Amino acid sequence: MGKINWMEEVSKRKDAFIKDLQGLLQIKSVLDEEHATADAPLGQGVKDALQYMLDLGEKDGFESKNVGNLAGHLEMGEGKELLGILGHVDVVPEGDGWSVDPYSATIKDGKIYARGSSDDKGPTIAAYYGMKIVKELGVPLAKRIRLIIGTDEESDWRCVEHYFANEEMPDTGFVPDADFPIIYAEKGICDFDMVLEPATAEGTADVELLSFQSGRRYNMVPDFAKVRIKAANTGNLIQGYQGFLHHSNMEGDASIADGELILTLAGVSAHGAEPNDGKNAGVLMAQFLKDVDLDVAGKQFVDIIAQFYQQTRGEVFDIAYKDESGDLTINVGVMSYSSEKGGRIGMNMRYPVTFDKNRGEEKIKEVLAAKQLLLENFSDSTPTFVKKDDPLIQTLQKVYEEQTGEKAELLAIGGGTYARALDHAVAFGALFPGSEDVMHQKDEYAPVEDLLKATAIYAQTIYELAKAD
């Protein structure tokens, strides 16, 4: 077979690509455990998105398999070795403030707007079409190629845990869920809860914190906070809060309902891997409340949160650290407090490849013990990396440079991709250098031409990694 013009092959399928992508984006596949069933363990929307991909693959002639409605795969080719491509069809909650319906898949100015357009439905469809092109060209292959579809990447990774407990591990692979050119290293990720037990001592205070709520996910910078306060004199509090909002250049509201003062604050959401990209509504709310004469338990809770204001590099726990994979980062993701039940603060820590995680955990325990807080639900996903001279890296560099004409620099990130679920894999696209990263944000979008260019890259990559000699 002569030299293949991969971009030309993608262009032939542009209309079908957009149609299939819009169909997937229009499914609200947010984790919904409240309405989970045995048949839809992560909620109906998540199951529908998985089934959409499996049905699409069957229509196009791939072998499909549903693995417990938690994951699935589409496969082609023959051979002992298996090339794996891991994408996911679950999305984070849409949040507030969109200018379009977040599940409309509206296209304007060359961009397709929807939750999941860039993370990770758009790139997953790009990888799927890369497989589809290789299949339709009928090029000789020496490996099997499998697109593995996950459904719980944004939460607890139950999908890949279940999948690889029942299915084979690919020999090598890549993950279309991050940045181009190539991510050879990913930081470790720890989630944990800081717990404040309910107050036992009776006491009186002029201002009582009744409740504090902010955040939906550990790996998201919260974009909204709401507190309920009981106070004898609300006028001064309202005036002070309005001044705080003005000084901080933030939006919020203060109102009275059923004799309680309700304060709300709008922040800016961002991926928890880089807290400084957003404005943490919960931390900013605590910044205001720390100067209010609150009850003892309420003050203790807000003081804990307020210390993370502009302190996102582990300073609070005395574990600041940096290596070639980047800074250690801390995101305060979920904050919940009630005067009856106490408080819980969900934290997300990303640590560099050479960081001593065990030492870090001990330092966290020491700091929390000194503040009479409990440490609960500590989980760890260890760092992953592939050596820079590995044949996988060299192949991806070759393809990227041929398709873009740009040097394929190797990157290290704080985000956690499915690459760490495989024995030998890296994250590869689909966000191009210089493009705006709007993953997990309102008005998430993906430039259509970028997705098409990524498809050409994935098609050639699949061919180069699986072709017969």
Textual characterization of the structure:
The chain has 469 residues and is an alpha+beta fold. The protein is 30% helix and 27% strand. It has helices spanning 6-12, 14-25, 44-59, 121-137, 158-166, 234-248, 281-289, 296-306, 357-370, 391-404, 448-466, and strands spanning 63-67, 71-76, 82-88, 106-108, 111-113, 144-150, 172-175, 178-179, 182-186, 188-196, 207-214, 224-231, 251-257, 260-266, 322-323, 326-327, 329-338, 342-351, 374-381, 384-385, 410-413, 425-427, 430-431, 445-447. It has an eight-stranded antiparallel sheet with strand order 13-14-12-11-17-18-10-19. It has a six-stranded mixed sheet with strand order 1-2-6-3-7-22, with helices on both faces. Strand 1 (63-67) and strand 2 form a beta hairpin. It starts with 5 loop residues before the first helix and ends with a helix. The mean pLDDT is 95.
Which properties best describe this structure?
single chain, 2 domains, 8-stranded antiparallel sheet, 11 helices, Alpha-Beta Plaits, 469 residues, 6-stranded mixed sheet, alpha+beta, Aminopeptidase
